[in-house]
Amino acid sequence: MDSNPFALHETALKIRASRNQILSSNIANADTPNYKARDIDFKSELQKAGGTGVSLARTHDLHQNAANTNRLGAAVKYRVPVQPTLDGNTVETDVEQTAFAENAVHYRASLAFLDGQIRTLRFAIRGRD
Amino acid sequence: MSLFSIFDVAGTAMNAQSVRLNVTASNLANAGSANGDPDKVYRARHPVFSTFGDALSAQHGIAGVRLRGVIEDDAPLRMQYQPNHPDADENGNVYLSNVNTVEEMVNMMSASRSYQNGIELINTTKDLLLQTLSLGR
Question: Do residue B5 and residue A111 have CB atoms under 8 angstroms apart?
C-alpha cells in the first residue's frame, strides 16, 4: 500500500484552493482598470507536484515528508481575453465565473474522494462500518 | 489555509463596489442641481479602482481591490437661461450639473452586479471550507 493514501487528493485540494484564490481575485478585479486576469493550469501543476516538486531531504524514517507543501512554485499565467476592453482589463466575468464554479465542483469531488478513502481505512481498522 | 484569503479579496471588492454605489447615488441625487456660479455647481464624481497587493501576493495570483480616490468629472457644464432661478447670474443664466443620468444608471447596475459576485464568492468559499472541516466525519 502507498505510504500516504491521501497524497494525491491532498495535493489536488491544495492546487484547487490556490486556483480558487486566483479566480476570486479575477472576479474581484472585474472593474479594475488595467488588471490582467490570471489562472494556473491544474494538470501541469499536479504533475509538477507529483513528480519534481520541491521537497526536503529525509535523513530519518520518522521525518515527516514535507514534499509539495511549497505552493510558491505555481506558474501563474495570464489569460488571453476573447474580447478587448477600453480600460485594459482582461477579466471576462462569465469566463471567470464558469471557471470558479468548475473549480469548486472539483474541490468538492476531491473532498468526497478523501472522505471515501478515510471511510475505507476506518472500515479496515474496525472491521465494521 | 489559502481559501481564507478569498474572504479578504472579496471583501475589498465589495467595499470598493459599495463606495461606487454610494458615489452613483450622490451623482443621481444631485443630477438636477444648478447654480449661476460654475464653481458652485455639483460635478459628477467617479471612483478610481486599482489592484491591491504586494509582490508576494502577486506571485500567488492574489489581488484585492483598492479605492485610489474619487475624481471629479471635468466634462463641460450645460448653461441654461432661467432668469427666475434664485441663483441665476446677472444675465439670467444658470449652469447645470454635468451628471450623465444614463451613465450613472449603468454604473449602478454594474456596481450592484459586481457586489453580488463578491457575495457569491464568499458563499461558495464558505461552503467549501465548511465541507473541508467536516472531512472524515
Answer: no
